Structures are given as C-alpha cells and as structure tokens.
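Q: what sequence does this backbone want?
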C-alpha cells in the first residue's frame, strides 16, 4: 500500500475565491439588517480593502507581466475595483440607517458579484494556465503576508503601530492607506538586506 499523497495546499486562486465568498456573505448580512449592521459594514470595508490591495499590488501585476494580452483582462478589473471603492464611499456617506442605503447596497452587491465572477471566470484561469502549482502556492503565501499587514480590526489603543489608522475614516482613505502599506512592504522586500545570520 503506497503512502498517501500529500494534501494540496491552497493556491492563490483558492484563497482569493474563498475571500470572494466571505465578502458576499458580509454583504448578505448587511442586506438582512440587524443591530450589528454598522459593525458588519465596518468589517466589509476592512476586508475589501485588504483583499483589493493584495490583488492590486500582487495578483494583477503578476498576470500582466506573465500573460500576453492580460492587460485587456486586468484593466477592466481595476476599473471595477475603483468603482467598488466609490460605491462603498457612497454607502458610508448615506449611513447604514439612511433611507437610501438599502437600494445603494443592492446595487453594490450586484456589481461586486459581477466583478468576482469576471475574476474567477477570466483572470484566475489565466493564472492557473500560466503558472505551476508551486508558483501559485507561493503566491498564496505572499498574499497571506501582505494581508497580515492589516490589523484584524480597528483598535482604539493601536497608536503605537505603523498601521494604527489604516482602518479609521471614510472608505476611500482606508483603501489608500492599505495600498500604501502594501506598496511600502513590497518596496522594502526589494531592498538589499543585511548578510544572512546577522541580527
């Protein structure tokens, strides 16, 4: 009897697809209402900022560099992500208890689902076709590192951390600060470090 095959690690497509389902779940909770609606909206802004920053700074550039013609696939996704940020900002301005919030949320939900479907049906298959399983698994690890830059929740006493204010304020500012944090991290990763073994 042979040894069992090693369990497949999630690759970057698996991780991003799971995140799409989580974001859709948060939107559904928002649509259902409830006393925790403001907290759910805050979590949606947080999770979407983390997810889109990782895609914008890691996944989309990788696809563009490696796949001929991928710019025609990636650019519309970036435009959709920009629109999602603007829609979230509009929802923030309306307020979760505002009379126009529900209709605007329903419109946002449709656009977000369409965006996720385009990534899953068009862009992600390009990644799977172009890269080895090992490369996609390594991208998942990089994605996890990038997403770990964000605090899991805003915290009133996080003033000593570099990202203390990433998730406070209007959504557009939240997205900008998360993207800047990821850009700084990636820039620092490219800098020559100290010799191995040095403290």
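A:
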């Amino acid at each position: 009897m042979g040894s069992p095959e090693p369990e497949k690690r999630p690759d970057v497509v698996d991780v991003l697809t799971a995140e799409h389902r989580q974001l859709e779940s948060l939107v559904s909770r928002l649509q259902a209402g409830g006393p925790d609606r403001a907290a759910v909206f805050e979590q949606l802004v947080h999770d979407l900022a983390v997810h889109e920053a990782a895609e914008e700074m890691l996944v989309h550039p990788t696809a563009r560099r490696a796949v001929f013609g991928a710019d025609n696939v990636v650019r519309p996704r970036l435009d959709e992500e920009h629109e999602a940020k603007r829609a979230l900002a509009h929802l923030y301005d309306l307020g979760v208890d505002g009379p126009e919030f529900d209709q605007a949320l329903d419109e946002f939900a449709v656009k977000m689902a369409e965006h996720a479907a385009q990534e899953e049906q068009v862009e992600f298959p390009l990644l799977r076709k172009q890269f080895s399983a090992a490369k996609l698994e390594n991208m998942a690890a990089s994605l996890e590192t990038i997403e770990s830059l964000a605090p899991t929740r805003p915290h009133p006493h996080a003033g000593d951390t570099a990202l203390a204010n990433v998730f406070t304020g209007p959504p557009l500012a939240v997205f900008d600060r998360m993207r800047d944090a990821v850009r700084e991290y990636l820039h620092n990763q490219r800098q020559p470090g100290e010799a191995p073994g040095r403290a």
